[in-house]
Each structure stands twice: as C-alpha cells, then as structure tokens.
C-alpha cells in the first residue's frame, strides 16, 4: 500500500524531476558507432564509397554501475539497448527487469548489456537516481567466482565515467538518432513535360521529396552544386535512379541525403510528379557568436561562412557535404576553431575527436595522414582551453598516449618523422609539393603535439610522462631550427632529403611557426617579409591553408592586409555566385573550370568546412577575444579594426557571450565567464566610467572585464 | 551472343566445377563474432549470463582481393554480406553488381564490404575464379588519391589470407549458421493431468518441443541433468516459462537450447499438450578415432567420454553444456587433445583458439586467467604438431606475440609472474589451494609458453624473436629449478611468497614437469614416488587436473596404475548412473550431494568436456600413437596394454587413420600419413613378415611403418 502510494506520487510529480536522466554508454563508443554509420553512407552515382582506413567498433559487452544512498525506497525504470541483466548489491535479479524497487540505504546497481549491432546503452530513471555521466562503465568487469560461489574481491578493472549526449527521452534510444529536418521549397522551378529543373536558391543538404508521385516508368535525379553539374547527367557526382510502378499518388522521399543547389529530375513512361521539395537536414545548434562591421562584403562573407560551417556541422564535423562526408582530422580541427567562435557546440567537438581517434591498437595515422594525427593532438589542447573539459583529457589520456607511442616508434634515426610505407604526408592540395624526406612542416606539428602531450600529462598528474614529453618536444623543436632555419632565406626550408636540407621555401612551416610562437621577434619579421608577403614563394590556393596563412598574418598584426585578402579571396567566390565556400578556389580559372577536381568534371566540393575560416579570424583576431586559461577563466579582448571603420560582435564562452564593439574612437565590451582583460592601443589617454584603465607601456592600455558587466572606453586609435 | 552461349554453357556445367568456392572473411573475425553470439546465449532461470571478460568484434570494413590470369572471359557471380563496392583492375564499378564479366588476361578484383552487425563476407563464383583462402584481405587498404585523382602507389597495408570454414552455399551466408538438429523422443514419459516428467535416457542437448500445444495458461519447464534437478522447481539451473493463448494446436519449439536428461513440464489453465520431444543439436563430426579393449568398463568409459566430448564440441569447444557455454582456454586445450584422438576436427580447434584470443589490445589474460593464457600458447604448438597447419601460425604470429608482450610486462622484479590486480590464478578447483606469491605452476607454464613462442617464431622466420624467446624460456626454466626444487621433498614446491620458497608440495607443477620432460630421470622417479603416488599430497578431485595427473603417470609408464584409476574414478561416475562425465567428482560424496557446486544445489555441470580425458590417454598412451613431426610426417606407435589383455583402435591423422591392435603376443599396425615408427619391448626376438624389425637395445625393438601398409608382429610381452 505504502509502495503504491509512493509510486502514485512519483507518477504525479513534475516531469522536471527526471530532467537529468539520459542515455549513457561507454565513452567514445557511441561516437565510433555513429561515425561508422555516417561515413559508410557516402555514395557516388549509386556506388558505395567507404573510407580507406580502419574503422573500429564499440565494445559489445558493457557493465554500468552506480553506488548511491537512498533515504527512502525508490522505484527505478530501466530502459536498455541490448540483452541485459541487473544486479542489486552484487545479487543478480531474475529475467529482464523493466522496473525495480531499491530499498533505503546504501546500494549499488549494475546493469550488464550485450549488443553487437548497436552500442550497449542504458537509461535509468528514478526520483533521485538517474543515469548520467556520474555512472561508471567498463568493458571487462573481471568478476569471477570461486568454486564456493564467492565473487573475486580484487579488481584490475578500469572504470570510466559514462559517455552521454542529449538523449534524454527513454523512448528514443541512441541507435535511433536522426538529425532534424525541415521541409523547404525550390525558389525557381522549370517544369517541362518530363522533367523538373529546380533551383533551391543556395547550396543545401537533405532528402529530395517527390510529391504526388504516380505512374509507371523511371525517375532519374541528377543533383548539382552548380547548374552545370545538375545538367551534366553523365558526369554529375550524385544521382538517384528510381523505378516507379504505382497507381495511387504518393509522396516519395529519397533514402539518402544529397548536397545540391540545383536538381534535375527526369522521368519517362506514365510517371507524373506534382512537385518537388526537400527535407533540409541539420544539427540544431545555436548561433551564439556573431560579427558585423562597416563593410557589407565582409558581413556577407561572415554569413556565408557561418552557413558553410553549419552545413558541415552534422553528426560530426565533416569535410564537405557533397563528398566525402567522412571525418577528416585536418578539416575538423579547423571546424573546431570556427565553432568556438560561432556555435560553441562542445559535444560536436568531442564527438568528432572521439570518432577520429577510434581505438587501440593504432595501425595507421588518423585518416592515414601524418599531419592529421598531429592536428588531433593539438585540437585537444585547444578544446581544453576553450571549454575547460578536463574529464575528456582524464578519460582519453590513454588513447592520446598510445597514438603518440605510434608516432614515436615511427621516428627515423635522426629522431624525425618522414613518410613511411602507408603514411600519407598531405600538408595541402598543391601541385608539385614535395613530400619527400623529413618535411619541416611535419616536425613542427610533431613538436607541438609533444608539447600538448606534456600539458595533458600534467593535467592528469602523470608527472613523469609530462617531463618526458616536454623533453622530447624540446629536442624536436631544437632540430627544427638546427636543420631547417636558413638565415639566407630568412625562413624555415621545406625539407631535408638524405640528411641534406633543401633550399626550397614553402609557406607551411613558416606560417605555423608564427602563431605557435616558435619564432623570435626578428625571425617573425623575416618570415613576414620573405615568406608571407613574398609573391615568389608558391601561393596557397586552398581555403584550408589560407586559414593558417591569414592566422599567421593576423598574429603579426597584419589585419588590414588580411581584410583585403579576405575580400579578394572569399569575396572572389561570392562574385562567382558562391552561396557556400569551396574546397579550393583559384582566381585564375574561368567558369565551370572552377568545379573540376581529382580529374573529375564536378569533383570539387562547393561547400567545404575549411572554406569558413573568416568566422575564426574575425572572432579571434578582429573582435580579438581568446581564452588565456581553460574555459575562459581568464581571457583577452584585443580588438583590431583591420582597416574597417567599426566592428562589433559576440564571442561565446562556456558561460555567456563576450560582446565587443570597436571603432577608432570607442570600445564597448560586455564580459562573460571568468575575468577578461581588454587590451588596446590609444594615442590619447583613454577614459571609462565603468572601470580602471591601466597603462602598460607606451600607448598601451589594459582594463579588467568582469563577468556580466558592460564597459565603454573612449580612446583614439 | 557469344557471351550468352558462354553463360548458358556455364549454367549447364556440372556443379562440381564450383566446388571450391566458399564464403570468406578476415581470418579470426567470424570466429570472434560467432563466439560472441554463442557466449551471450547463456541464461540461468531466464536471467542473461554473459562473460566477465572483454569481447572483441570483427572489423566492420573489409577489402577482399584476388589477382588472376584468365585465358578467356569469365562471368562471376558475387554474393556479399554487407554494403559493398567492386573494383576491377582498380576501377570502381557502378552500384552493387551481382554478376560481372572479367575479360581474358591478367586482372585484379577487389570487393570492399561494410557490415557492422555481421562479419563482412563474400562468395565469388566463376568457372575458374572462386573465393577461397587464397584471396587476400585487409581492414585498411590505405588507398588514398591525390588532387589529380591518382591513387597512392605505396602501401603500408598488411594483407592476410582470407579465413573460411565450410560455407560452400552462396545462399547460406556465415551469419545464418546453425548447428544441425535431429528430433529425438524421451525414453520414458510420466504423463499426468497437468504435467509431463520426461526422461531422455541420457544427458542430451537441444531445443525442447511441445507438440500440439493449445489453450490458455502457463507452461513452466524445469530442466534437469539429474531427476532431482528437474523436480527441484525452485533451484534447478535452467527453465523456460511460457504464457500460452492459442486456440489451434501448434508445435512449439523453445528458443534456446538447454542441457538435460530429465524435463519436468507443468502447465495450468486450459493448456493441453499432446506430447514432448526435443531437437538434438550437434556439430556434425566424424568419429575417426576408436578404442576397444578386453575390459568392458573401460570400453564404456571410452564411449561415454566420446559422447561427453561430442556434446561439448559445438560452435566451439565449450566447457560444459548446462553452463557456462562459454569458451574457456584451459578446458578447450584439453578438448583439442581429445579431439586429435577422436574427431580430428581441425577447424574446431582453430575456431576455438581464434575466438579465445580475440584481438589487440590485450587488456587481461585469456578468460582473465593467467594459466589459461599459457594453455593457449601451448595448444598452438600442439595444433601445429598434430595438423601441420603452418598458415595458422603465419597469420596469427602477431597475436601470439602481443599476448606474450602482455605477459612479459607483468613480470615482477624477479622476472616471474604472480597474480596482479585483475589476474585470476586458477590452477584448479581445490579447497584451500594457495594462489599467493609466485606459484611454481604458473612459472612452469610460462616457460613452456616461451618455448612455444621460440618455436613459432622460428616457423615464421623471425630468427631474432626466436632466440630472444628461447633465452627467456631458459631463464624462467632455470629459476623454476633454482627456486622451487626441494631435494628434501623430492619435488617442486608450490610457491614462493615474499622471496621465500614455501615447503608446501602440490601435484600441479610436478606432474606437468614430467610430461614436459623438464625433469631428469632421477627427478622423475622422485616425483613419481613422493608426489604422484603419495597419498599425503592433497588429492585431485576434478577430472580437469586428473587429465594431467594421469598423463604424467602414463608418461612414466604407469599405465596399469592408470587403468585402475580410470576404472575407479570414471567407473565410479558410471556406477552412479552418469551418462556423461562431470565437472567434478568426489567419491566421498553421497546421492544428490554430487550435484552441488558454487554454493548452488545443482550448480555442478554433469557434462563437462574436461571429464572426457580417457579419450586422449587411451589414444596417446595405450594405443601409443603420437606425432613426432608436424602433421604426422613422422610419428611413433608405442602400444601399452596397461594391464589389459588386448587393446585395439584407430588414431586419426591428417591423412587417414593409424590402426593398432596389441595383445601380449601380437601387435598389428596399419600406417597412415608419413612414416611411423613402431616401438615395443619383447622378451623373445619378434618376427614380422611385412617389414624389418630393428633391435634398439636390450629387449627394445623398432619397425618402420609406411603409409597405408599393414604389419603384424609376433612378440612376447
């Protein structure tokens, strides 16, 4: 009776009591599983195109547990993906319980779940007990019993905190995850007797929907990111071919998503179609960042960049929406940075990093690419800095370490890395770029990765590891300057082959050395003049490496130059009608030449995440906001007009947005998160009613920005 | 036209043309997947009971390829488990082709398959091209393309030979595998108004079938390996509970297999059942070995042992059919040896070893048990010796090595192994057996495992590894005698704790040291007298360790003593009505006490593979047949009557059976495989018309036995 009353009161209680319960799993496993699902969805003209690297799987047998103290008995509802059993205080319960009552007192509940197809996951809901990240999980509980039935009391088991995301509905388990969709209509329709040519007005992504489809015959659908592609029925990259035989009208939604602006629908026989729309598919994220300025072209670039990033922010940060729809570490590492200045969607960063890393044993570089392994390391430290998610490093330090072990075993006799059999030394898509021997760019990323390892080892209190990695980083960095710095060239040279440094200079290592702060002031100026602003050094044509090139220039205070470059390069794509930014852009090409790549007429992706870098540059180097301690506990605001009359915008932090306005006369700032420092130059003595301005040198000033407070500074640029 | 004629002739051709085509996969992957299926089928009274160690998964993305030269064009049929694409000579074909034509000339075909749920597998059938173990497979092809579309021409990819078994029907893919079944009826039925009590006459295994089931109500089924268990509705180990509501009569087969001799079926409401039978489930194997002798009790023991082994020879060699139905390395290693003297079903051995090993990284001992890791190593060398399957060692040497690496990293400062956190030091089910400190038994198995590694490293031409492992083995073996041999005790002592050798003597290390030939002749005699034949040393009560105890005695020529022990111990179980041999037998217990274990009334398994050891002992030490080189290229026949008047039997080899008859006056032998050597003692000069008998010492004789030839020797024992 008492129990029933309790149950009744439980049912009558407000739903918010249950707000914390969420589906949980082994951390990283769902990310790997979902990554497999997504990366094996790529098709090209009906042909299946899976990745060429090893894909891992979730652990199929999982133990979840939680210890707790109850002041009164509690009814728990159990939802499980997989075959399972339940133990209360080590005693196994009969069958597959869906509801159990836990008595008052100290207790321990274990759920053990097997699932080969999907990730073992549980959702537990009670008045006070809910499944969440505080639960512990392991893939080997090692709980054997002796001949008397006594369980082993020792344990060699590593328990991690459970992984979770936002699956807060017990009836929608993780395996059923789908992105959101929204129906959208074409802006123009060219309808003929046996065809539709549709223009959705801008690059988009989703499921095409044929409305009121009926009759008997074939439907052939040709998708195009450009009109040329949609019309090129023999060479467009993606298609859908259907055989129809239905008497009643029915809406038909395509099975797989496609990227397109234009769609060419052709049909024959007695097939009739009332109209065509599409289900736009997207990850719901919040536009927390923002940027506006006095230049409308820059504002347009920002908007198109944001849209480009959003289209590529999906189950994971992907490279491009037409192809590959795989997760590439180099591409993703840029998306993370752009994301910190726009959506600040941390789960998307963590998901992507976990899917990329996969599991041990390591049998190749991430995506098979040496540089992409290093971006993975470097991104983790960025992630910690921006989000303060220490648990991520604590949980995955072993995976960081084993990946670094892989790199360390591949060093040559000089302690440097060169491409061994099976290693792709990528760097950039650039014709004739040498990958031979010990490339300086790879050593530089290697050194930075070792520094990241040292920092992360410190975070997890592995002091011995920390000092070893620091020492290794120092050695590699030392060799970088010993072997590659050429004082006649005023630059790091590209590579060493057979122990001899080549005289060839490329931009890659030099621009990274700037914003990694590996160069002294003199070297920075040398690199600026002799590499970055030197047209004799081979130009960069991908937005991918333009990201870093412009970041280096910004770090050197060359924002006005960068503004011009941005307008030329991204503005150049806009002038060609781009509604999202491209995988590659060469202003020298003409017309449909722009669409070709990989030896294919429409091989190029016209919506590539790495094309969205202005998001990052404008937030970090114009609004000038960046963390100087994890989770923005401390941060800097160093606005730079970059030749614009005024700029304003928002930069998200884990706790609210930092707001910045800047003109030549006035700076306005609202603080968020921890403690900010506004830093600026002024010709005259600046004034503010809201706080104290400190002079920090000739014409240099600083002001402390507190959380939630707004400040206005009068100054003179 | 030509093509159609070709196709027609292909279809008209005899099926035998296609005989070689078989489903293929990544070696070891199907075994792991099937192991997961089987080991997660265990239930106890409706509760799911999965293993407590890590289970691995198949690689979900697989590339299969084959290069070949065709004298004329050939049509290939493709069957695939998973989403796939096909490349011919590196060029990808459209869609999901089911039939392709390969032109004459030199060609390469690749199939790339993704499957998360099941093992990626392919079946390719043409006139000359068939999928088989000659195909190559990899989980990472690393075939990237550059910006011009050119594929990488270097490769860091390891290609292995495809795995296969006997899936020769394209329409029955590996994921659909089921063991065979055969309907069987109870020998007695006690039918009451609302119940059936059935006796199937002997221990059996399969799906219970309720015939002509109808009505509304509950059916409760209680299974028993003993009648007591079937009647103990509250404590029997396995049950099925059904709710019935059906108006028409229907046969109903239970979903999961059970082990039983007796079944107690109870029902209520309006439920009616016409009768009950069962579908006996089994792996079809051939009884290639055989044994008969002058003692009918021994013959009965042999028959019951063979049945016990067969019941436990399933998807894999399992421990027992009631529980755990998991794969245990220690149990399986005995089944392998018994199998070599009965079914000689090599695929079952390979499957079991692969499922046990799983994949890297190694995170615990096999089954969490230190000794079970070592049995795995030792079994591999046995497997090679009996079957000559060198490819197994070539393919899986890396997995041997990484498992040994795991062991090597767990050595203590003395270079020895003791149970660390998470290690189960099992040895045997024996009350009060100490597992503390450095147990001699574990060091002995460790030394033998290192010797196996040295041998296998040699087989795969890793000469450096081979010498390192040989050196390590020597060191561990040296310490074994230095630390544990106690000349006052005339034995190896049980353990060392805190650097001090204990004075306690157990049988384990001593009996293994005998048949590993680690002892000199004097030590062997000491161990025989002071350990093996000494009642003061704690007795062994499990058939598991009796296996090795009796093997040691046989190796010392004590067959007459072993005959007596066999009759006492196994004969003892038969006298208690056993129809299969038990997990444990203690003659001191009475009645239903025999059925209890693990603190549960019917916890003991009455059909345990390790109970079948007479199969091995009688084949190897009575018929006396054993290989002295891989695959019986050379072998020994050394018959031993063991106090019996006559023995006769067959021992399987990869090529036919060796047949042996022996009495005190006559030996008859038929050779198989390579070259045998018959070795025997005789008081008088032996004679044979079929071959030349060599004298090899005082009363010792040898004779060469050729393949397929029969020999008869007159002698005098």
UniProtKB/TrEMBL annotation, chains A, B:
Keywords: Signal. The keyword Amino-acid biosynthesis does not apply. GO terms for biological process: carbohydrate metabolic process. Residues 288-620 form the Alpha-L-rhamnosidase six-hairpin glycosidase domain. Residues 1-19 form the signal peptide. The keyword Signal applies. Transmembrane segments: none annotated. Residues 624-661 form the Alpha-L-rhamnosidase C-terminal domain. Pfam families: Bac_rhamnosid-like_N, Bac_rhamnosid6H, Bac_rhamnosid_C. Residues 63-265 form the Alpha-rhamnosidase-like N-terminal domain. This is Alpha-rhamnosidase.
């Amino acid at each position: 009776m008492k129990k029933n009353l309790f149950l009744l009161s439980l049912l009558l209680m407000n739903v918010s009591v249950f707000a914390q319960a969420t589906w949980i799993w082994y951390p990283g496993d769902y990310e790997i599983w979902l990554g497999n699902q997504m990366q094996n969805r790529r098709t090209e003209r009906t042909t299946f195109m899976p990745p060429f690297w090893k894909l891992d799987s979730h652990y199929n047998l999982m133990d979840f547990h939680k210890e707790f103290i109850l002041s009164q008995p509690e009814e728990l509802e159990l939802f499980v993906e997989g075959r399972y059993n339940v133990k209360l205080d080590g005693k196994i319960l009969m069958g597959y319980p869906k509801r159990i009552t836990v008595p008052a007192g100290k207790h321990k509940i274990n759920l053990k779940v097997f699932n080969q197809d999907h990730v073992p996951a549980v959702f537990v809901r009670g008045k006070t007990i809910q499944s969440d990240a505080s639960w512990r999980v392991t893939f080997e509980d090692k709980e054997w019993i002796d001949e008397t039935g006594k369980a082993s009391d020792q344990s060699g088991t590593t328990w991690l905190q459970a992984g979770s995301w936002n699956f807060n509905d017990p009836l929608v388990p993780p395996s059923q995850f789908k992105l959101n969709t929204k129906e959208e209509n074409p802006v123009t329709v060219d309808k003929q007797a046996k065809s539709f040519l549709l223009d959705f007005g801008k690059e988009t992504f989703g499921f095409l929907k044929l409305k009121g489809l009926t009759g008997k015959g074939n439907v052939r659908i040709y998708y195009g990111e450009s009109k040329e592609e949609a019309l090129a029925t023999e060479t467009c990259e993606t298609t859908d071919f259907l055989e129809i035989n239905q008497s009643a009208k029915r809406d038909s939604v395509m099975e797989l998503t496609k990227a397109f602006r234009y769609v060419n629908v052709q049909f024959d026989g007695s097939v009739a179609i009332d109209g065509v729309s599409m289900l736009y598919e997207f990850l719901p994220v919040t536009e927390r960042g923002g940027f506006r300025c006095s230049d409308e072209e820059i504002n347009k670039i920002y908007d198109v960049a944001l849209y480009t990033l959003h289209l590529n922010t999906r189950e994971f940060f992907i490279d491009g929406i037409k192809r590959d729809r795989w997760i590439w570490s180099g591409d993703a590492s840029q998306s993370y940075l752009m994301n910190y200045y726009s959506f600040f969607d941390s789960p998307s960063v963590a998901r992507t990093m976990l899917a990329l890393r996969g599991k041990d044993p390591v049998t190749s570089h991430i995506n098979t690419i040496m540089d992409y392994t290093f971006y993975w390391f470097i991104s983790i430290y960025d992630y910690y800095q921006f989000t303060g998610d220490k648990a991520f490093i604590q949980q995955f330090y072993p995976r960081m370490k084993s990946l670094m072990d892989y790199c360390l075993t591949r060093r040559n006799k000089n302690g440097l890395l060169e491409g061994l059999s099976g290693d792709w030394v990528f760097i950039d898509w650039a014709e004739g770029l040498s990958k031979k021997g010990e490339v300086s760019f790879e050593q530089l990323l290697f050194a930075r990765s070792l520094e990241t390892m040292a920092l992360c080892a410190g975070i997890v209190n592995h002091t011995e590891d920390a000092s070893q990695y620091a020492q290794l980083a120092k050695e590699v960095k030392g060799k970088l300057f010993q072997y590659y710095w050429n004082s006649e060239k005023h630059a790091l040279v590209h590579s060493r082959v057979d122990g001899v440094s080549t005289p060839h200079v490329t931009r890659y290592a030099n621009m990274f050395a700037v914003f990694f702060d590996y160069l002294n002031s003199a070297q920075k100026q040398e690199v600026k003049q002799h590499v970055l602003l030197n047209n004799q050094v081979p130009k960069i044509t991908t937005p991918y490496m333009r990201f870093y090139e412009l970041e280096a220039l910004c770090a050197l205070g060359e924002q006005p130059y960068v503004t011009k470059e941005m307008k030329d390069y991204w503005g150049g794509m806009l002038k060609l009608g781009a509604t999202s930014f491209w995988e590659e852009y060469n202003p020298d090409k003409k017309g449909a030449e722009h669409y070709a790549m990989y030896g294919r007429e429409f091989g190029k992706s016209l919506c590539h995440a790495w094309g969205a870098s202005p998001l990052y540059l404008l937030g970090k180097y114009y609004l000038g906001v960046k963390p100087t301690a994890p989770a923005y506990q401390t941060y800097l605001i160093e606005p730079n007009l970059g030749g614009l009359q005024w700029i304003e915008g928002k930069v998200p932090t884990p706790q609210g947005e930092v707001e910045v306005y800047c003109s030549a006369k006035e700076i306005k700032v609202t603080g968020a998160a921890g403690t900010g420092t506004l830093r600026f130059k002024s010709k005259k003595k600046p004034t503010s009613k809201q706080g104290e301005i400190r002079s920090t040198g000739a014409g240099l000033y600083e002001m402390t920005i507190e959380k939630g407070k707004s400040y206005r500074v009068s100054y003179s640029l």
